[in-house]
Design brief:
The complex is a heterotetramer, with two copies of chain A and two copies of chain B. By secondary structure, chain A is an alpha/beta fold. Chain A is built from 16 helices and 14 strands. Chain A folds into two domains: 11-50 and 89-203, Rossmann fold; 56-86 and 208-393, 3-Layer(aba) Sandwich (Rossmann fold), CATH 3.40.50. Chain B is of the alpha/beta class. Chain B has 13 helices and nine strands. Chain B has helices at 3-10, 29-39, 59-71, 75-81, 85-88, 99-105, 107-117, 129-142, 157-166, 188-200, 215-224, 232-238, 244-255; strands at residues 15-21, 44-48, 93-96, 121-123, 146-148, 150-151, 171-174, 206-209, 227-230. Chain B has a nine-stranded parallel beta sheet with strand order 5-4-3-2-1-9-8-7-6, sandwiched between helices. In chain B, helix 2 (29-39) packs parallel to helix 13 (244-255). Chain B is globular and about 45 Å long. Chain B starts with a helix and ends with a helix. Classes of the chains: A alpha/beta, B alpha/beta. At the C-D interface, helix 1, helix 8 and strand 12 of C face helix 3, helix 6 and strand 6 of D. The structure holds pyridoxal-5'-phosphate (2 copies). The site of one pyridoxal-5'-phosphate has 21 residues of chain A, from helix 5, helix 11 and helix 15. One pyridoxal-5'-phosphate binds next to helix 5, helix 11 and helix 15 of chain C.
């Protein structure tokens, strides 16, 4: 059994491309060319050169001594927080901007939640001198103000999405509308392993550099490529997909995904998609989706703008559905506590999204010899106002 | 043969299709709007099933959908409201919505309900032709329900032909690569696109939609197709400063004086 | 002629240790042991392991294609902005915290201007589980609020310095007073190549990893170790010292330092030490110093908290004095413009300090074949409020 | 032999050295304070040369230095004020300041000015003994100017001996490893430190400073040395609620009733 994508763009029952005709030619062109373009030697060379010299890859795999002592196992942190712009998101935008150039596009649009994907997109657009429009929920514009400033300074236009919950889902709707309006010269850089095929696979491939490096680094450090656990937070799922990609078919490597439980799974203020969701279609893919019995999408809630999404990438939906991966639902408060604990134990302030992954350590019991890799998907600079407010309140 | 097909059998030009969201402006307005449009001689009514995330639609439709949902509209209510549809009118009615609504309601159950209340066809912009033809076409045909697919200036000739073939009501010709709700006059590019579609698919029933908003654009569209679809402009008219029926009458007579 | 430190702790006429007796035993112990401790294999191993896995070294040397086109020369950026915590400062704090442990210290104090050194110190203290007090001018606490939040989240106490100009100089005074008060258990981690011997040399050695890497990376990229120019901003001078360390005696490598001219060298609101300063003693070292004829230290001014210092490291004073290096005085406005230009050209938002180095590109004329290395000492997240305010005003 | 050395020749115990910043609280107060202290029988006056960045001093001295600088105090003004010093008093006067002040003024010019106005010695806390003995000692000796170095609990025995040897006025024994201005009573550690200094340097003139603030701490210090230095406590008293001279008198009589 393979957990990778099939010829038709599906992971098991999940995936596909449920898109209006207005997007068809763009998506079809992408689907027909992405593997060819990205496997050309010249593309690979450019991609890897930028990842190395511009992004700062390989990102370290850091043995967290004090954290390991605290949780009585062997904890390694994959330091995506050290990437240029501060999260894993840039791996994907570097890939997509090169692809967009190959496709002859001159204008870039993107959606963003936490702003990290928006910043990563604005960054590569500045680098390649392309016009850049980023859609962002107006709620997120407020709670991730620092990233809004960064995007503007990088020359991008940030357009507020005012519909629905005014968060990531709605920003995605607006970006799709923009693409429908501007199909010829525009490429849409989706920021996670969501959306219609081929996006989930394309983004996962660009992010798979994470697990490629983990394999080499673990081998160097402990003599074997496979950890016992990989833990990652899941919004759309791109950092998780990247961290597990090369381990999909290694059944001795267990995957644990941290979802945002918000105020609690049962409270009605949650973004715990895999627990609260059923199969359904969002943004062009069949996946697990928070929805009512009429298929209306339920507005999610999480303190973390990057996890505040009612769907999940189809690859991950399939892994969860087939019990290849387990999920832990982490509340706002648990994530907050985990962020402070990491800061005080290892001197690393994680993104609020990432903090959800660290909260898993409080949940699961590991053996002393278990090798646990946590994907440190981003740094917390953007979340300082939230952290400080919480600290003052407590 | 359903009412939609019958219509095209008897009328080949100047067809006016008006889009209205169900349950908008008030929950109970659905049937009144249908009745009023029928009385004013509108040829087809495209009833929007309000959806939380209508990605193929523009702001006007999205906002009205949102209000309809807040009014309490859902598929159970809608089929309830439409249960008297055919007591009052024989105007062809098609439902427009998003595929996930059907999936969650149960696809066959949904199609059966359509048949029961007398709906004639469907438009599901995010259901790809391939999936439809592979998995669902038979279910529609069994029930004599029409289906309409969209083509755009970006759609290849081959794909236009497939769309035409699969469309049993009419082919939905998107006037420009842009979201519903934009309005402007026809440009050269659009005209040559319409001419291409015309010469490629001379025998297909075609309605032009997106951006049609007044008499001039309506008449213009009718030159290149069997008729046109008006959505956003009609929605905006619904909340004009008069009573609902006067707002409707005023708008329709402005299109077809 | 060597530009390195001599046996007595002087660079030419500059340097020394003009300290009160209350600091003598601490400084003497440092002076007597720093070379021995830092050259032990076990120390080196720990230092380099942390630089690699925790800090993320080597930092890339990035060929800036668009910037090179714009300025018609070959521009390489040394990406210290990609280090953990976002600046070169962490290289030094990693070294000093390991040294402090060897010396049996349990409490750490530091001064900070921009907050980067404070964050870097708070970070290593969290990592090593040590108490941490950071002194910071109350003016800087306001203008670098994000870094204050980071320090607090990392568990450090930030104590405001309210005297003088309430900036870096005054924070340093307070830190020295604290050390005088607590000489036994406390180590003072100075954040730049300033202060009494052996600090300038010790910090320069910890930062010299920058030029060590540049040599290797340039060799790899262009086949020779030596660039034609190295450009760096200078507050105290630690990033500059690190970037030039291995080139000190290579006379074909020209050094250009960017100083903060504030509102303009002649306006009385400036921190252009080497231009406005004369030899004098500050914080224990004889160096170039902005002072009146009575030796009273003049309060400096720069929009950039990290350059807002009336002195300069004695190593750099000597290089400037002996014409081994040249200095460009960059105004607030020129630095600001350079920051926006870098953001829009290369997708990199530099620290306000670092932006001064980039403004040098507008001043100097290079040959098309000139290889110019700019030390990108830090990222600009901490400066976003300042950048945005400037952008709105213009 | 200068006045300082003469003092220790004639008086071996209970010496009271009062530190006062020049030009504080008002610019013109310098001479009045000296005169008043002399009148009250204070043995040595240590006059602070206000400095912008007095790193060896605590907050009280720093704040008063700041005010003195704002009052317009500088070395030219100071020597001008002191030009009548020896017309009025023969109390030993030492200047305390930071080395950079002397460097910028011109070291020899500074020492000459001291001699000219009748200053007897200097305390320069940031001038290391090594630099002094290598470069400047002769200049001081030529002019019969005393120098005082500091020792602290952290100072090694050998270094204490060097300090004692180089100190031609008195050895400044820092009572605890802490900035001036802190106050508290003597602890066991301090007492054994004083006893060590006493037995190591029985023949050296020693004054204990830092933290001496009232009669008890003064008398306590006098048990272990030739006397004590009071700084911050005196500065605080200067701005008491009476007139300057009354504030001074009240403070001095509280120390030595
Ligand atoms: C640091 C970080 N981690 C995780 C996420 C969630 O996205 P994904 O699940 O695609 O990794 C985000 C989204 O913005 C993010 O910024
Ligand atoms: C990014 C950055 N660059 C430069 C400096 C100036 O310090 P130095 O001259 O020691 O490199 C600072 C000081 O805070 C800084 O944060």
């Amino acid at each position: 059994m393979t957990y990778n994508i099939n010829q038709k763009g599906f992971y098991g029952q999940f995936g596909g491309a449920y898109i209006p005709e207005m997007l068809y030619s763009n998506i079809a062109r992408l689907k027909d060319s992405y593997l060819e373009i990205t496997s050309k030697a010249s593309f690979k060379q450019k991609f890897h050169a930028l990842l190395k010299d511009y992004v700062g890859r390989p990102s370290p795999l850091y043995f967290a001594e004090r954290l390991s002592e605290k949780y009585e196992c062997q904890i390694y942190l994959k330091r995506e927080d050290l990437n240029h712009t501060g999260a894993h998101k840039i791996n994907n935008t570097i890939g997509q901007i090169l692809l967009a150039r190959e496709l002859g596009k001159t204008r870039i649009i993107a959606e963003t939640g936490a702003g990290q994907h928006g910043v990563a997109t604005a960054t590569v657009c500045a680098l390649m001198d392309m016009e850049c429009i980023v859609y962002m929920g107006s709620v997120d514009i407020v709670r991730q103000a620092a990233n809004v400033s960064r995007m503007r300074m990088l020359g991008a236009e940030v357009r507020p999405a005012e519909s629905g919950s005014k968060t990531l889902k709605d920003a995605t709707n607006e970006a799709i509308r923009d693409w429908i309006d501007n199909p010829v010269e525009t490429h849409y850089i989706i920021g996670s392993v969501v959306g219609p095929h081929p996006y989930p696979d394309m983004v996962a491939r660009f992010q798979s550099v994470i697990s490629e490096e983990i394999r080499i680094q673990l081998k160097e450090k402990i003599g074997r490529e496979n950890p016992d656990y990989i833990i990652a937070c899941v919004g759309g799922g791109s950092n998780a997909a990247g961290a597990i990609y090369h381990y999909l078919d290694q059944s001795d490597v267990k995957f644990v995904f941290a979802e945002a439980a918000g105020l609690g799974v049962e409270t009605g203020h949650s973004a715990a998609t895999s627990i609260l969701g059923k199969p359904g279609i969002i943004h062009g893919a069949n996946t697990l989706l928070m929805q009512d019995k009429y298929g209306q999408i339920i507005e999610p809630y999480s303190i973390s703008a990057g996890l505040d999404y009612p769907g999940i990438g189809p690859m991950l939906a399939n892994l969860i559905h087939s019990a290849r991966a387990t999920v832990e639902a982490i509340t706002d408060q648990q994530a907050m506590d985990a962020a402070f604990s990491l800061a005080r134990t290892e001197g690393i302030i994680p993104a609020l999204e990432t903090a959800h992954a660290f909260a898993v350590l409080e949940r699961k019991k590991f053996l002393p010899e278990d090798v646990v890799v946590i994907n440190l998907s981003g740094r917390g600079d953007k979340d300082l106002p939230t952290y400080i407010k919480a600290d003052l309140a407590s | 043969m359903n009412r939609l097909q019958k219509l095209f059998d008897t009328k080949q030009g100047d067809i006016l299709n008006i889009y209205a969201p169900a349950g908008y402006p008030k929950l109970e307005d659905t049937m009144s709007i249908i009745t009023e449009l029928d009385r004013l001689g509108v040829d087809i009514i495209e009833l929007g099933m309000p959806y939380s995330d209508p990605m193929a639609d523009g702001k006007t439709i999205q906002d009205s959908s949102q209000i309809a949902l807040e009014n309490g509209m859902n598929l159970d209510v809608l089929f309830q409201q439409l249960s008297t549809l055919r007591e009052n009118t024989q105007v062809p009615v098609v439902l427009m919505g998003y595929f996930n609504q059907l999936v969650q309601y149960g696809l066959e159950r949904f199609l059966d309900s359509c048949v029961k209340v007398g709906v004639d066809g469907l438009i599901l912009p995010d259901l790809p032709m391939e999936i439809y033809s592979n998995q669902f076409q038979a279910l529609f045909e069994e029930r004599d329900l029409s289906m309409s697919f969209l083509v755009t200036p970006e759609t290849s000739d081959a794909r236009c032909q497939t769309a035409a073939q699969l469309s049993t009501g009419f082919l939905y010709v998107v006037s420009s690569s842009s979201i519903t709700g934009k309005s402007g006059n026809l440009g050269e590019d659009q005209i040559s696109y319409f001419e291409k579609i015309q010469s490629l698919l001379p025998d297909t029933n075609k309605l032009i939609g997106f951006g049609i908003h007044d008499q001039a654009s309506y008449e213009n569209a009718c030159e290149y197709a069997n008729g046109a679809i008006i959505g956003s402009a009609f929605i905006r008219a619904l909340t004009g400063d008069k009573e609902l029926s006067s707002n409707i009458e005023e708008f329709i007579t402005s299109i077809r004086p």
